[in-house]
């Protein structure tokens, strides 16, 4: 038979209430008693009954995570950060990936109801009205890189606009006077802000230059299509932009591979830059100039914010009342793919991009 909480209490010579307080992390238990009870649990191989525990605490010790995708290094890093922060708090994850439109996102949200203590959400559909329509009012929620944060819902993000602006500044400092851009998905808030930063910087720094935006979707394949198209322009003696800025690293890497296959030199023939600084960005040849986003750190910080909201959910106020928008620093990381700076240009290597930079 399975070991019960009563068995633990009897073996430890304490009350069932004391064991329950240790399981629920109450601060009223002395460290000596806590250590003693935990040792007995380990000795007896006691496993808490999650269902029974949730009946007494109204908590499941599980948080939901809704992401647009689970594929690729960006989302692997994001989940790594969330998972590490969750494990340190004794929390479990219920993860779902959103590939469809608003109806699929609504279904995914509704399936989480009653199964999680709170939600981390990164979705283009996650505005305040959408969340309110599909989730209980008191369920704690933290948004990741969403334009809907700062009102009813807490959020954690970076200043994508300022970071994209700074990247165009850097490419300009390298002497590039025509800069193309590969955009992300049209409905994605991060992609919108990065495109807005590119356009604003181009208008301010290179007013005579023509804007050149290629549609992308954050995939390596999208970058490869753009890279191949630019290589064909070169082969046909049609001048491509002197630099290409992709809205994420995967598209930049895809473009790099297509250009390489066509015999185009980076950065000699065309400079290249990305965004996110996924782990592989430093290992491609030439190493990729990019914006370093603290991806795992962002996930961990969002989980910490959510745990704080879950902890105060019993308050009379709505669990989402702490709807502060938190913006984390990004960092411009200059590597070989963008080419050397022109003489006397300011060195932007490892510049810290804080909220408001470049706007």
From TrEMBL:
User: What SMART domains does its record include?
Assistant: HTH_LACI
Q: Which GO terms describe its molecular function?
A: DNA-binding transcription factor activity; transcription cis-regulatory region binding
Domain of life of the native organism = Bacteria
One Pfam family from the UniProt entry? LacI
Keyword line: DNA-binding, Repressor, Transcription, Transcription regulation
The HTH lacI-type domain sits at: 3-57
User: What PANTHER family does the record tag this protein with?
Assistant: HTH-TYPE TRANSCRIPTIONAL REPRESSOR CYTR (PTHR30146:SF151), LACI-RELATED TRANSCRIPTIONAL REPRESSOR (PTHR30146)
Name under which the protein is recorded: LacI family transcriptional regulator
Organism name: Pseudoduganella umbonata
């Amino acid at each position: 038979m399975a070991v019960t909480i009563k068995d633990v209490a009897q073996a430890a010579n304490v009350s069932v209430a004391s064991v329950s307080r240790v399981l629920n992390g109450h601060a009223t238990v002395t460290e000596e008693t806590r250590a003693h009870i935990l040792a007995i649990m380990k000795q007896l191989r006691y496993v808490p009954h999650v269902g029974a525990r949730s009946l007494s605490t109204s908590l499941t010790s599980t948080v939901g995570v809704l992401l647009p995708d689970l594929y690729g290094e960006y989302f692997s890093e994001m989940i790594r950060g969330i998972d590490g922060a969750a494990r340190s708090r004794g929390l479990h994850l219920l993860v779902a990936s959103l590939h469809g439109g608003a109806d699929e996102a609504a279904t995914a949200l509704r399936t989480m109801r009653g199964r999680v203590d709170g939600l981390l959400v990164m979705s283009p559909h996650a505005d305040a009205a959408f969340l309110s329509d599909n989730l209980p009012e008191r369920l704690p929620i933290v948004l990741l890189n969403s334009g809907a944060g700062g009102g009813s819902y807490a959020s954690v993000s970076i200043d994508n606009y300022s970071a994209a602006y700074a990247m165009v500044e850097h490419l300009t400092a390298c002497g590039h006077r025509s800069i193309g851009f590969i955009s992300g998905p049209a409905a994605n808030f991060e992609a919108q802000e990065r495109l807005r930063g590119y356009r604003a910087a181009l208008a301010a720094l290179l007013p005579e230059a023509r804007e050149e935006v290629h549609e992308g979707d954050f995939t390596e394949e999208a970058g490869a299509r753009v890279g191949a198209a630019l290589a064909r322009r070169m082969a046909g003696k049609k001048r491509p932009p002197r630099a290409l800025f992709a809205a994420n690293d995967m598209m930049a890497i895809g473009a790099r591979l297509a250009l390489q296959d066509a015999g185009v030199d980076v950065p000699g023939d065309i400079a290249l830059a990305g965004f996110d600084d996924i782990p592989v960005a430093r290992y491609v040849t030439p190493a990729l100039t990019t914006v370093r986003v603290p991806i795992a750190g962002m996930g961990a910080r969002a989980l910490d914010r959510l745990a704080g909201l879950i902890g105060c959910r019993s308050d009379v106020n709505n669990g989402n009342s702490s709807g502060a928008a938190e913006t984390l620093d990004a960092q411009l990381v200059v590597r070989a793919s963008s080419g050397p700076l022109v003489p006397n240009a300011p060195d932007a290597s490892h510049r810290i991009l804080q909220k408001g930079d470049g706007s």
